[in-house]
Design brief:
AminoTfrase-like_pln_mobile; MAIN-like; 279 residues; Protein MAIN-LIKE 1-like; two-stranded parallel ribbon; 2 domains; three-stranded antiparallel beta sheet; 7 strands
């Protein structure tokens, strides 16, 4: 009887093993059935592939090269305005001095688009014929000469038009009336780059150097590491970097924030209906 019981137990264990393998086979069959031609056959990793530009390319639809957003000409105009020593001091203290001459007035849209078509937001990497590659924190810090150390930037969740106007008044030196008019005309918590340039010139003339430094730095990051698809504006949330006492300016990890912004824009650019690329 004992031997019979053991035989039954062993048989039951074998049956369990068979059932598990069948389940795995069913999952694999399902992945094969829901895969994409010349794309992933196992879709548990690249879950958004149906929206990827590579999918429509395989179906014969070419969206063309992306329009790559560059603010080099805007930044070049800004650099023509003299930078007083007190303002230059704060630019150096923030560790962003290397961004000033590092602008692009034009970019190879075809080359960049080719790489974006290989980017997948699920893995934050380029899927190339020889394997995967990505952009690392060290790459950003080394190429742009910005700090990878410090606090990560947390964007404020309550940055509406009223708060954006108040921030421009308190930290950028704009009058409350003109700050409210700016955000009201934009109908969002954003500032026009031209408005920042005009404000900066006025602040220099009145020797308001700390406000001028904040205005210059906000314009600088908007034209370089945080260039987005608005073309002519910058989100007010980035002024949070400069809310604090300027003497604590090295607290932030500029490289990590830049890398996240770049990843987000590459992921957006890989979606098939995207026509422009920021970052």
């Amino acid at each position: 009887m004992e031997q019979a019981a053991n035989d039954i137990h062993d048989a039951s264990g074998d049956a369990d093993d068979v059932d598990d393998s069948n389940d795995d086979a069913d999952i694999d069959d399902q992945d094969q059935q829901t895969g994409f031609p010349r794309g992933p056959t196992v879709t548990r990793v690249l879950t958004q592939y149906e929206h990827h530009v590579a999918q429509i390319l395989w179906e014969g639809e070419d969206r063309g090269s992306l329009k790559v957003i560059t603010h080099g000409l805007k930044l070049k105009k800004f650099t023509e305005v003299p930078v007083p020593d007190p303002v230059e001091h704060w630019i150096r203290e923030f560790g962003l001095m290397h961004l000033s001459p590092g602008y692009l007035t034009m970019a190879d849209a075809g080359l960049i688009s080719a790489f974006v078509e290989r980017w997948h937001r699920e893995t934050n990497s380029f899927h190339l014929p020889f394997g995967e590659m990505t952009i690392t924190l060290d790459d950003v810090a080394t190429l742009l000469h910005i700090s990878p150390h410090g606090k990560f930037f947390d964007a404020p969740v309550n940055m509406n038009t009223n708060n954006a106007a108040r921030a421009a008044h308190e930290y950028l030196g704009a009058t409350l009336e003109e700050a409210c008019a700016e955000t009201s005309n934009n109908k969002c918590a954003q500032y026009r780059l031209q408005w920042l340039r005009d404000l900066y010139s006025r602040l220099i003339q009145t020797n308001q150097f700390e406000c001028a430094a904040r205005t210059y730095l906000l314009h600088l990051v908007a034209c370089t590491i945080f260039a987005d698809k608005t073309h002519t504006r910058v989100e007010a949330k980035y002024i949070t970097f400069f809310f604090i006492d300027l003497h604590r300016c090295r607290d932030y990890s500029w490289a990590s924030t830049t890398l996240v912004f770049l990843y987000d824009n590459l992921g957006d650019g890989a979606v098939h209906d995207t026509r422009q690329l920021g970052g």
